[in-house]
Amino acid sequence: GDKVGIAVIDSGLEKSGDLSGGRGDKFFDFTDDGRSGHPYDDYGHGTHVATLIAGEGHESEHDVVRLANGKRDKVKVAPYRGIAPKARIVSLKVLDANGAGYTSSVLRALEFVIENRERLKIHVVNLSLGHPIYEDPETDPLVRAVEDAVRAGLIVVASAGNYGVNQETGEVGYAGITSPGNAPTAITVGAQDTRGTVDRGDDSVASYSSRGPAWYSGLAKPDLVAPGHRLVAVGAYDGMLYNRHADRRVWGRSDKRPRYLRLSGTSMAAAVTSGVAALMVQANREAHDEAPLTPNLVKAILEY
């Protein structure tokens, strides 16, 4: 993910050794007036998403002995490293300490990203958030903003939503896609449960992951699924999720306080996909002398 910028529109960002901001990461607070300032995350969701994308995993590093050419040597591994650890995170805070926020804040953040994409060198937008679909995508302001971003050349990754189970019957249900996951050009991602194994034969779509079709439009969504169940990334010490869910904390190498948090959801799956998109942008740049990948081409490659 080197030299790839990813806008994470979420609850903010808490700096840590795994994501220190040393690569020029930026923070803008749209729960206030959108001004740049010291990064913080009083909910913790944005930090988890950002470090799934670009965390360096320093706090999880440990030595492993391996055999190479008949000799034993030690190598450092970081099991909780993100997908694209060299990517730059541009954090735009739109959610409060309870994970709630206004659609208008998300709209302002998207408008800001579109207007400043070249100055901030943003290539990918991660939207691990959403609300129920209330209207046709042709008139939904959030969907229209996503479509504007894609037309501007930005790769937009959105979570499908966690409404896969009927709350009344407990059965897996349909048409639970949230907005802006119903945006036609967005890469909408559902959550896959890998069952903790390398083999894909036992993989399944997590029961909570929203299924299509999208309400009103009838579009086939999500576009794909990615690992999103029980994923470990940095926990924000000052975030509500970290402080209310002690059972989800995961130790790193520190003997003072658990550094990581284990969360599940299509938010996590979208973050994984944004990281993959960053790797694609970098690989294409190196192979084709900076001829850009279009958002629709990225989507097609990921789907097929």
The percentage helix is 10-25%
Our Rg estimate from Cα atoms comes to: 19 Å
Number of helices: 6
- How is the main sheet built? 9 strands, mixed
Order of helices and strands: EEEHEEEHEHEEEEEHEEHH
Strand content: 15-25%
Structural class: alpha/beta
The end-to-end span amounts to 22 Å
Uncertain residue segments? none
Number of strands: 14
User: What is the average per-residue confidence, as pLDDT, rounded to a whole number?
Assistant: 93
Morphology:
globular
Fold blueprint:
Elements lengths: L4 E6 L15 E4 L5 E2 L8 H10 L7 E7 L2 E7 L10 E6 L9 H13 L6 E6 L13 H11 L3 E5 L27 E7 L10 E2 L18 E4 L3 E4 L5 H5 L4 E2 L9 E4 L2 H23 L6 H9 L1
Parallel strand pairs: 1-6, 1-7, 2-6, 7-8, 8-9, 9-11
Antiparallel strand pairs: 2-3, 4-5, 9-10, 12-14, 13-14
In short:
The protein has 304 residues and is an alpha/beta fold.
List the main descriptive attributes of the protein structure presented here.
globular, alpha/beta, three-stranded antiparallel sheet, nine-stranded mixed sheet, 304 residues, 22% strand, 23% helix
Describe the structure.
The protein has 304 residues and is α/β, with parallel strands linked by helices. 23% of the residues lie in helices and 22% in strands. The chain has helices at 45-54, 103-115, 141-151, 240-244, 266-288, 295-303; strands spanning 5-10, 26-29, 35-36, 62-68, 71-77, 88-93, 122-127, 155-159, 187-193, 204-205, 224-227, 231-234, 249-250, 260-263. Strands 1, 2, 3, 6, 7, 8, 9, 10 and 11 form a nine-stranded mixed β-sheet that branches. Helix 3 links the parallel strand 7 and strand 8. Helix 1 runs parallel beside helix 5 (266-288). The longest helix is centred in the last third of the chain and has 23 residues, at 266-288. The protein is globular, with a radius of gyration of 19 Å. The two termini are 22 Å apart. The model has no long low-confidence stretch (mean pLDDT 93).
